Amino acid sequence: MIGFFGRGWAAALCFAMMWAEVLRAVSSASGVEAIIATSTLLTPDKARARVDTLRREIAHHDELYYKKSAPEISDAAYDRLKRELAALEKGFPAAATGDSPSDSLGDDRTGAFPLYRHRERMLSLDKSYSEADLRGFYARLTKQLGRADLVYVVEPKFDGLAVSVTYQKGKLVRAVTRGNGLEGDDVTANARTIRALPRELRATAPDGSANPLPDVIELRGEIYLPLAEFTRINREREAAGEATFAHPRNLAAGTLKQLDPREVAERKLAIVFYGWGACAPITALPATQREFHARVRAWGLPGLENFSTARTADEIWSAVQAFDRSRPQLAFPVDGAVVKLDSVPLRNEVGATEHAPRWAMAYKFSPDRAETQLLAITVQVGRTGLLTPVAELAPVRLAGSTIARASLHNRAEIARSDIRVGDFVYVEKAGEIIPAIVGVNVARRSATSHVFVFPTQCPACQTAVVQASAEVAVRCPNIDCPAQLTRRFQHFVSDAAVDIEGFGPALIDTLVVRGRIKTIPDLYRLRLEDLLALNGVAAKSADRLLAALDRSKHVELWRVIYGLGLPQIGSVSAKALARKFGNLDALVVARPEDFPATLRATTIAGVVAYFKEPKNRAVVTDLLALGVQPTAPVATSTIFAGKIFVLTGTLPNLTRAQAEGKILAAGGKVSGSVSRKTDYVLAGEGSGAKLEAARTLGVAVIEETRLLEMLEEN
Ligand code: IVH
């Protein structure tokens, strides 16, 4: 190789220019502009240096992704690094000696769990990023098998964490992560918290026919976090003043790798099966992927529902595209589609490479991405004083909505990614939900772009900010800070908590700034004249506000507990506390041993410490003295037993909390997002995406009157 380059700079330059082209093609294959400039002319020395840099970077990102479940860059950016490295290693073999991460499987072993060796290796998938790549896969298999009558299955590519679950004589015995492909972390105790994962397989199919169970089978699947659960967790963390998670996959992986299964159980992980490893007897294996899916369902396991079959390259491509289009309606995180040869005997014929089968190909969807200008960085103060930087963007369309803000997570993140105010940045929708800034278009950086200086004082009360030594988070330590107060009130009145109608952010802000409300009971001390004294509050609306306050005195207990903003208490824990204690008095004096077993010791200690504070006890005493009498939820009828409702829009008479209360009292459940499992969508004025999703999925849509009729009919 050296000799080849030694022939003169002209040859080298010509070769380097060719490489510039190849790399450009590689980096634009996913349809997005490369963040890393790969089109510079490359000499062998530069190639070697770049290979070294890429290997270091990839190793660093692998460590963050697999071991810490906390990646710093998007999947697309990571994939680009890997593709650039693979292309360089191919073009400059001399620069590419030693082990390369470009063809490694990754390694998720953390050292915190016992290791378990898979009976059969867990491979990864080859990835494609373009129609041409996919057609290439089809052509290769057609040629290799010498026939064009092949059947393919196109499946969603779930974005979670690969696991191998072993059933012995139909009994769940072990769940192991992929690890390095040969051995992985034994996470059985944690996986057992997944409700949909049966401890025993069904030996009889629902139609009564025999459903043979192998002596032992390793089932391969993905543990993931449903999007509604991801949103719930983030919403609650936001309300609790904690940093939010950027991606459902990292949260799923981080959750599964928790050491305490009780913590795992608090987040509702899900699982889906898409393949198998070892199986004895071997005759128990299905002959096709379609048969596998049918068998998974018959065994009572969560299987894939939305797969399709295809017979030609055109059909494969349209199935992949159709699936890409349906992404916004999906209730789980996906990052692509997987195309698999259906026939198992033919799979055995084509075999596998070191790290992936030849009979399957993943197609990674390009993330929804836009480029826009970062106009400013503002800093928000949360309920617990957490300072969160927010990117204020020039509005840009992204995946069907207009994005004008994105979270920048924390101070360290801004410094690490060297994002400057005035820069043109790339915004992506991570996990289809939260817009995130994934990179800077350095080529468009102008002289006026400037480094953001993180405030050393709280932007709301000017108190010097503090940073706990072990945390990246920066906080305002002043508990009387008006921004924190406002947030605390906003949380209490929000529809997720006590749901007091009419108390919007502006009204709360005015009441705080004027010193009319300092503690939560002050809300119930507001008199007509206090409200009338505010600009823009007319007599009629003042009456309405007082009536709303009155009504809110009798909401369910868990809403008040949640609304108080106890440390680490989200709505799920608040419900557990309400069920356990039945009233506020009992909660205030509870000892650690009285708490529900589902709560973590640190959470319990936090609540006990909270109520040791005389100030916090006084809040509860005052609320009770002011007539707040929350009700413990008891199902009074069962007409909605097992029925799942989703609420959307504003109802004509009932508040959201009242409607929810009625549904719960009749034995029904209320969920945050529409899926095939939803029975009814209760829609009011201004219903948007949820109503549309209901129509797409054929879910019954009812109005308030119908809900009341159904309750009365009972
Ligand atoms: S098949 C031997 N099917 O994607 C090949 N994998 O990037 C086994 N994944 O490691 C994989 N959805 O964790 C397959 N429908 C699906 C999948 C899927 C998600 C994951 C899996 C795999 C990774 C490769």
In short:
By secondary structure, the protein is α+β, with helices and mostly antiparallel strands.
Largest β sheet strand count, sense and barrel closure: 5 strands, mixed
Distance between the termini: 83 Å
Number of helical elements: 26
Helix content: 25-40%
Low-confidence stretches: 1-40
CATH topology of the largest domain: D-amino Acid Aminotransferase, Chain A, domain 1
Q: How would the global form be characterised?
A: globular
Tally of separate domains: 5
Protein model, in words:
The protein has 714 residues and is α+β, with helices and mostly antiparallel strands. It folds into 5 domains: 2-103, Helix hairpin bin (Helix Hairpins, Orthogonal Bundle); 115-364, DNA ligase/mRNA capping enzyme (D-amino Acid Aminotransferase, Chain A, domain 1, 2-Layer Sandwich); 369-451, OB fold (Dihydrolipoamide Acetyltransferase, E2P) (Beta Barrel), CATH 2.40.50; 482-625, Orthogonal Bundle (DNA polymerase, domain 1), CATH 1.10.150; 644-713, Rossmann fold, CATH 3.40.50. Helices cover 38% and strands 18% of the residues. The chain has 26 helices and 22 strands. The strands form 6 sheets. A 5-stranded mixed beta sheet has the order 2-11-10-3-9. It is globular. The structure holds 2-(butylsulfanyl)adenosine. 2-(butylsulfanyl)adenosine (IVH) is lined by residues 123-125, 155, 157-158, 162, 220, 222, 274-275, 338, 357, 360, 362.
